[in-house]
Amino acid sequence: MRIAVDAMGGDNAPHTLVEGALQALRDSSGELEVLLVGDRDLLEAELVRSHRMDGLSIVHASEMVGMGEAPTVVLRRKRNSSIAVATDLQKRGEADAFISAGNTGAVVASTLITLGRLEGVTRPAIISPFPSKKGICTVLDTGANVECKPENLLQFGIMGSLYVSHIFGVGEPKVGLLSIGEESSKGSDLTQEAYRLLSDSGLNFIGNIEGRDILKGTADVVVCDGFVGNVILKFTESIFETISSSINAKVKMNPFGRVGTYLLKSAFDKLREEFNYEEYGGAPLLGVDGVTVICHGNSSAKAVKNAIKVAERLVRERVNDRIKERLGKEACEGTKSFEKGPDSGHRISGSWQGIN
User: Fold this and answer.
1) Residue 112 domain-assigned (yes or no)
2) Residues 65, 148: one domain?
3) What CATH number does residue 241 fall under?
4) Residue 14 lies in a domain
């Protein structure tokens, strides 16, 4: 199992990327190889401060992509960036998967152009896990597509259902469509038509759900466009930090509150762990002909390690093969129109936003 890591991407590169790779190798059973992609001199200097391990190698890339650079600029002018080189390693079969904490738009664009889409997929989707009262609620799309069509949301439901089934072991994942009301008549033209398609899909579709239902665990898979999904993702990330800061401020105002806080420490620690994105590693980009996991721009070494584990699991469970099989079946049953049309080409634009 060879995982390519964009060692120059993210707010804390290359240190956290290198440390995360080392942690993943320590936890592995010896079947993992990590390819650190980036400036060789910088990475060699970083490894001098760490304990270099078997299974770790460096692939030189002379350029790096800034977090604010437009995807189109990167594709045209930075052909030797760590993102481009890492994606190309997978294209050539020299890596089984690729992870990056760098510029999400550039990662999506490079992956889509270099690897292409899975047969039958009209749009890829970033899939993100959210903690809920009943376990994990998985939401897609959370940033790959600002605008979507009903057919895209149907495919998100299919891909998300297969992902949750094979990665989290949920037998018949409940799929919900994010809208402004539970009734099928509620929502935009997009959600109303998507409701109809999902109802006829054979998925375990439970209908429309509202934003409050995500953390309640009403559905295992929640489908929405990338604009809405990314807003939800960023808002959820802020919840625990805001609550924690507020509690700390109140405690300082009341000395007796410190005693109660101490007694509740274990509960607070548990809550912090559940809402910590580091525990989930990264967000897979489903629908591309390869395995790409996108990490938070501020990922720690622990988050990078867990992202590598997510990538390993995606490869071992053959999630892409299962998506192709299911979408091939859909095409045979009369939905072949999803494979071609206005979205069949590669769209590269500055509208791609992500989880950085």
Assistant:
1) yes
2) no
3) 3.40.718.10
4) yes
pTM (2 decimals)?
Answer: 0.84
**340 in a structural domain:** no
Q: Using one digit for the tens of pLDDT, what is the confidence trace for 93-135?
A: 999 999 999 999 999 999 999 999 999 899 999 999 988 888 8
Across 190-302, the runs of DSSP E, i.e. the strands, are 204-209, 221-223, 283-286, 292-294
DSSP state of 333: I
Number of domains the chain is built from? 2
Nearest 5°: phi and psi at 139? Answer: -115, 135
Alpha carbon distances (Å) from 178 to 15, 148, 233, 290? 38, 13, 13, 28
Between 61-65, 97-101, 350-354, the lowest mean confidence (pLDDT) is in: 350-354
Q: Say if residue 95 is exposed, middle or buried (CB neighbours under 10 Å; 0-12, 13-18, 19+).
A: buried
- Cβ neighbors of 267 (< 8 A, separation 6 or more) are none
Q: Is the bond preceding residue 150 a cis peptide, omega within 30 degrees?
A: no
CA separation, residue 263 to residues 239, 246, 256 (Å): 22, 18, 12
8 Å CB contact between 21 and 300: no
Query: 54 and 106: one domain?
Result: yes
Same domain, 144 and 249: yes
Instruction: Give the Cα separation of 238 and 240 in Å (integer).
Output: 6
Please tell me the predicted confidence (pLDDT) of residue 304: 94
Q: What is the pLDDT of residues 276-305, one digit of tens each?
A: 656 777 899 999 999 999 998 888 999 999
pLDDT at 354 over 60: no
Instruction: Clarify whether residues 4 and 135 are in a common domain.
Output: no
Is the domain of 61 the same as that of 115?
Answer: yes
* Domain match, 7 and 95 both: yes
In a domain, 249, yes or no: yes
The residue behind tokens 């997510």 is 310
Q: Which two tokens stand for residue 223?
A: 């489908």
**Last residue of one domain, picked from the residues 224, 240, 270:** 270
Per-residue pLDDT tens digits for 179-223: 999 888 888 999 999 999 999 999 999 999 999 999 899 999 999
**Residue 239 host element (H or E):** helix 226-253
Domain that holds residue 83: 1-122+287-325+348-356
The answer to whether residue 230 scores a pLDDT higher than 50 is: yes
